Every structure is written in structure tokens, then in C-alpha cells.
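Supplementary Methods. Inverse-folding protocol.

Structures were first reduced to a C-alpha cell string of length 117. This string, shown here, constituted the complete conditioning input.
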């Protein structure tokens, strides 16, 4: 294994270890959106989802990245639209995809507990 390969594996392991905190932050942001569906809470959620949609595939979490990317696109399209559904309607529409993303994060966070850093 080359030095750069070892460095990447250490970075990947650190990323894997961060999935539990990413899940917690995403879950909290989602709960805020459900409790109070408004543009500001959806914008906070989008920041987290957007970061995840970019970083997850870079570290080999393709399915996680696809889930996050789909939600990110939906949130970006909603934000950019001049005529759009209410924030509450958007939150309702995102319910199932968000649960899938949170479940995927939970799966990988559990697996990461057993990976050495």
C-alpha cells in the first residue's frame, strides 16, 4: 500500500467515524423542519444535505451520496422556484427520502464503530 493510499484510508476512517455526528445534526435539522416548516429551517437542512451529497461519494459512500443528492436537488429547486409549494408541503414530500438518508447514515455509522482510525 502506498503512502497516499494509507493517508486516504485514514481520512476515510475519520470520515466514517464522523457519520454518527453527521446523522445527529441532520436528524436535528430535519426535526426542526418538521416542527416548523419554513424557509429558514429548510435552508439549514439544505446546507447539511449539500455537504453530505458532495463528501459521501468522495469517501466511497455512493448510496449515501445519492440519497443526499436527491434531497439537495429538491431543496435547491424549491429555493429557486418563483412559484413553489409551501414549506410544509415540501417537508411532507421529503419525509420518506429523509428517513432513507437518516437510516443509511445510521447503518454506516454503526459499521464505522468497528473500523480502526
Amino acid at each position: 500500500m502506498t503512502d497516499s493510499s494509507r493517508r486516504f484510508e485514514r481520512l476515510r476512517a475519520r470520515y466514517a467515524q464522523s457519520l454518527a455526528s453527521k446523522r445527529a445534526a441532520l436528524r436535528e435539522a430535519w426535526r426542526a423542519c418538521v416542527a416548523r416548516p419554513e424557509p429558514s429551517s429548510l435552508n439549514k437542512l439544505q446546507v447539511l444535505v449539500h455537504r453530505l451529497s458532495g463528501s459521501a461519494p468522495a469517501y466511497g459512500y455512493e448510496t449515501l451520496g445519492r440519497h443526499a443528492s436527491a434531497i439537495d436537488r429538491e431543496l435547491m429547486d424549491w429555493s429557486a422556484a418563483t412559484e413553489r409549494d409551501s414549506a410544509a408541503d415540501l417537508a411532507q414530500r421529503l419525509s420518506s427520502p429523509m428517513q432513507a438518508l437518516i437510516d443509511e447514515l445510521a447503518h454506516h455509522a454503526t459499521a464505522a464503530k468497528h473500523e480502526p482510525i
